[in-house]
Amino acid sequence: MGSKQAGSGGSTGGSSVDLKLEIVVIPVSDAERAKEFYGGKLGWRLDADYDNGRDFRVIQFTPPGSGGSIIFGRNVTDAKPGSAQGLYLIVSNLAAARSELLARGVPISDVFHGADGKYDGPDEAYIFGKIRVTGPDPEHRSYRSFASFHDPDGNGWLLQEITQRLPGRVTGNATFASVNDLAQAMRRAEQAHGEHEKKLGHRDDNWPEWYAAYMLSEQSGEAPPD
Fold first, then answer.
1. What is the CATH T-level fold of the domain 20-80, as seen in this structure?
2. What is the DSSP letter of 105?
3. Multiple choice CATH, 85-163, 3.10.180, 3.30.43, 1.10.150, 2.60.40
4. Whole-angstrom Cα distance, residue 6 to residue 108?
5. Cα–Cα nearest to 153, from 43, 30, 19
6. pTM for this one?
């Protein structure tokens, strides 16, 4: 889920049929080892483990707060193990997410961002073709800070920090995928409201409405309340 918006060649019309991306297939060489990594180490929810006892096994896991899942197993795909790259996990607090993975014993890169204007080909050393630079985005902009890790087969995952969506990314009423996402949004609203009260020069008793407007603006990409 990068920050690049759809090009002019894409359709802008709405579809009459919901198309919900639900499953991504991960090619692995050892289903049991992968199950231990995604369930035991990452702590993802095990949804299914079906084995016909002969030539087919499918295992499904769902990351915390995610509407989509992954599957892997035996004879699920003929893709080369480790060939799945650039798999994005969106987080609202990159530092906290990275710390949790480290606590679980998962090797993960330092936080990094892409150097503006410096492109040199898309591979492991780059992000969106931009040279990786150690540390979070200097302005702490949404979509700009990352950390990466791999499963035992080398399939590559990226944590991407998003705290405010670009316009058009969310339609209708904003929702939060987990209690943690909602709590983080409330903390950001609390901090922003403190700055708002400083500008006012007095206490704002309508803070619930202000919090609500601020949190909805983050989700929809609209301007925050004045």
1. 2,3-Dihydroxybiphenyl 1,2-Dioxygenase; domain 1 (3.10.180)
2. T
3. 3.10.180
4. 30
5. 30
6. 0.71
Residues 41, 106: contact at Cβ < 8 Å? yes
Q: Comparing C-alpha atoms, which of 212, 222, 180 is closest to residue 63? A: 180
- 85-134 tens-digit pLDDT: 989 999 989 999 999 999 999 999 999 998 877 766 555 667 777 888 89
SS (H, E, C) 186-218: HHHHHHHHHHHHHHHCCCCCCHHHHHHHHHHHH
The per-residue pLDDT for range 27-74, each reduced to its tens digit, is 999 999 999 999 999 999 999 999 998 999 999 999 988 889 999 999
In the chain, list all ranges with CATH 3.10.180.10: 20-80
Q: Report yes or no: 47 and 94 within 8 Å, Cβ to Cβ.
A: no
